[in-house]
Amino acid sequence: MGVPDPAGFKDHFSGRAAGYAAYRPRYPAALFAWLADQSPAREMAWDCATGSGQAAGELAGRFSRVVATDASEAQIGRAVAAPGVEYRVARAEASGLAPRSADLVTVAQALHWLDLPRFYAEVRRVARPGAILAVWCYTALRIDPGIDELVQEFYDGTVGPYWPPERTHVDQGYRSLPFPFPELTVPEFQMVSEWTLADLSGYLRTWSAVIRYEAEHGTDPVAPVHAGLARRWGDSATVRQVVWPLSFRVGQIDGSPA
């Protein structure tokens, strides 16, 4: 389970920071081009709860400066360096950024972990008038119906009871979370990777529910499902396309206090 924190930070991933950096999929470049086009300027973007920097590196080529923060020192330690990206260990609700300094604020696959009233207050403090807040998430992957079925059974059955309650918000595409900003219509985006079976198993081991299962039982729940997947995958070296649809909430910030 996550490391307890007296300030309320639920650290589900520091123990798997290396796997997170290696196996979490990358977001499409077209998404970041679209976000840059919506932003009032391209001086500074804040990637909040950056993890190992999957989004921050893509923002770097489109903004003069990117500040990427995460409350997990282990995650920041695994972040991939990129020109123009400054990584900081900081809570989402207390970024340390200057008032009215950000043209874009992004939160990728992490909004459900945050203290939303405090985070939204921090966004209003940090954002320039007209700045954009973009949050997104992804859930079920798509490879092949037979493979997808086994992954879904693992998700719902084997590790289903071990998902933190916040995971429900991801399954609902963040529609269940408050989002107090006028929303923009977002084009359809999806992530696409080319993976071997080993890549898929590595990704499954980054799930917070898998980490919690292992902590309670002392065994790896991925090994049995890996064996079942192998029978449907074919040669273990075979590369298959993996697709994740993305769900978004994107809004414009007026810069006034909450």
3D structure, described in words:
With 258 residues, the chain is an alpha/beta fold. It has a domain at 14-141 and 165-190 and 245-252: Vaccinia Virus protein VP39 (Rossmann fold, 3-Layer(aba) Sandwich). 34% of the residues lie in helices and 21% in strands. It has helices at 17-23, 29-38, 56-60, 73-78, 116-126, 145-158, 167-171, 197-204, 208-217, 222-233; strands at 44-48, 65-70, 85-89, 102-108, 127-138, 190-195, 240-252. Helix 5 links the parallel strand 4 and strand 5. Helix 1 crosses helix 8 and helix 6 packs antiparallel against helix 10. The radius of gyration is 18 Å and the shape is globular. It starts with 16 loop residues before the first helix and ends in a 6-residue tail after the last strand. Residues 1-17 have low confidence and may be disordered.
